[in-house]
Design a protein that fits this description.
Layout lengths: L3 E5 L4 H6 L1 H10 L4 E7 L3 H5 L6 E5 L5 H12 L3 E6 L4 H9 L2 E6 L4 H10 L9 H7 L48 H11 L1
Parallel strand pairs: 1-2, 1-4, 2-3, 4-5
Helix pairs in contact: 4-5
């Protein structure tokens, strides 16, 4: 029997990539499933590169409550068997609540631990990587989690002309949404110099 699965992770870029391990584990546990990934429009291309994703449902950047409600009603017509909320915010809860499914689970976000770490510099006695927390959302359904690292397929691209660049390449993306996650540009400069 083909199962239909909805995975919700609206953003941000790094977190969408980190969900790839959990998505792959879901697909390994249910190889005949049809897996839909719900995310923001700007992350749709990355979500489509996650192994196991059959369809991406893209949400506009600034979706209002009325449009989110309509989207949830449309998703409800798809008869999902399992919904896995890997975002854990109000919008993902709203969708998860309105879309019916036989089984639902949510990512344990650990808000208090995060707040204490960021604002009080009090670190929890036991820390878990975000990937492990995403995978923890699968364990209530007996899904094993052999994949514990991000996995993306690469697009087919034309060969790069190597006479103008070196053999080894490193790509650095100096951006983050939250101040406490941002590196100073000088740190990126120092890493680039060291790698060079």
């Amino acid at each position: 029997m083909t199962r239909t699965i909805l995975v919700i992770r609206l953003g941000s870029l790094g977190d969408v990539i980190l969900t790839s391990s959990a998505v792959l584990n879901l697909k390994l546990a249910h190889p005949d499933s049809r897996l839909t990934f719900l995310t923001k429009e700007r992350f749709a291309d990355i979500a489509s590169r996650i192994p196991g994703v059959d369809k991406v449902c893209a949400v506009p950047e600034s979706i209002g409550a009325k449009d989110l409600y309509r989207l949830a009603l449309e998703l409800d017509t798809r008869n999902f068997d399992l919904i896995v909320d890997l975002h854990g915010n109000f919008r993902s809860w709203f969708v998860r609540t309105l879309v019916s499914a036989q089984q639902k689970s949510s990512y344990p976000k650990r808000r208090l631990d995060r707040w204490l770490t960021v604002h009080r510099k009090q670190f929890p006695s036991e820390s878990h990587h975000t990937i492990d927390l995403y995978n923890a959302a699968l364990t209530p359904w007996g899904v094993t989690t052999p994949s514990r690292r991000p996995v993306l397929t690469t697009p087919s691209i034309a060969p790069i002309r190597t006479e103008h660049c070196r053999e080894n390449r490193v790509v650095i993306a100096p951006g983050a949404a939250h101040e406490n996650k941002k590196w100073l540009l000088e740190r990126f400069r120092d890493v680039a110099r060291t790698l060079h």
